[in-house]
Amino acid sequence: MAPRQLKKLQVGVVGIGRMGRRHALNILHLTPRADLLCACSPAQSDLDWAAEAIVPYGTKVCATFEEMIEVRGLEAVIIASATALHASQSRIAMERGIHVLCEKPVTFSLEEVIKRDCRTIASGPGTKIMVGFTRRFDDSYKDARQKIQAGLIGQPVVFRSHGVEEFDNSGFFINYARVSGGIFVDSTIHDIDLALSFFGEDIQPKKIWAAGVVVKYHEMKEFHDSDNAVGVVEFWGGKIAQFYNSRTGSSGYDNTTDIFGTEGKISINSNARKNRVEITGATGVRNETHGGWIDRYETAFVNEVNEFTAAILDKTELPIRLDSAVSSLKIALALQESLVSGHPIRFDQNGERMSSPSAVL
What we know:
Helices cover 35% and strands 25% of the residues. The protein contains twelve helices and 15 strands.
């Protein structure tokens, strides 16, 4: 008797730039319960890559999202297109009953996601949406979360996290930054999501403030952003989160997180390192670092798409709630606003904004 063929989720990838390519290859080679049915991009360089990397495996490649979304048999999409398109493309997919894994942030506008887009559609039967916060699927962060839930450090009180990315003088980053939504919305939002995952996804911010400087990317002054920024969030219930993000590092990618509790502390990635190899020479002992976040979280990207696929096929809850992603976005947008205005922003215990940007400390 021939072995029973298990159903596989038929997935499409929207946008096959750097992020989308990683997703496409993970589905092809590292996601046993999914098939890469189709992909799309308007960029010729992406289509050329696809012709060599994924078309030989039977993947249909389209030049537009509108064409791809009509591909017969499509059941789920991973949206890795420009952020400005995330909400509208998610809505269109879900209106057709197609499940969505959308890269962060799902939108630049909190009102868009709450009032008229993905959130309303996601409340309907059957169709699921998850925002991609990859660090949640990293083995080290998962282990730390389990230890905290088991009470190893008592009650978590202070969360501190930073991400330092290498300086890019090619010109690519500054063009990307102009349309990214800002340092807190584009990058620090990952650390914000981690804070919610450790403190509890229903925790509400009380007061938010931020400050930043421009060190190397001087063009960022034109669009009121910073290449080094610090944000602090005071939560209702007596917890605090502090975030630092830098775009101007000189020694690879560095992402470190500390959680301080009433009975101890847990740290993740305290020493940024590529692996356990140490090199000894005239200048001392050193280790190599990851070149970027996409390499540091290589396994987490695989875990993410596998868990998303399992939740769809097994009809179980997604590992990240949409409400939690909305909360992360709310905090990121408030931090970005405080960065520009120089003023703190306050919220009541229900998470509703209380004060104008002119409020005093």
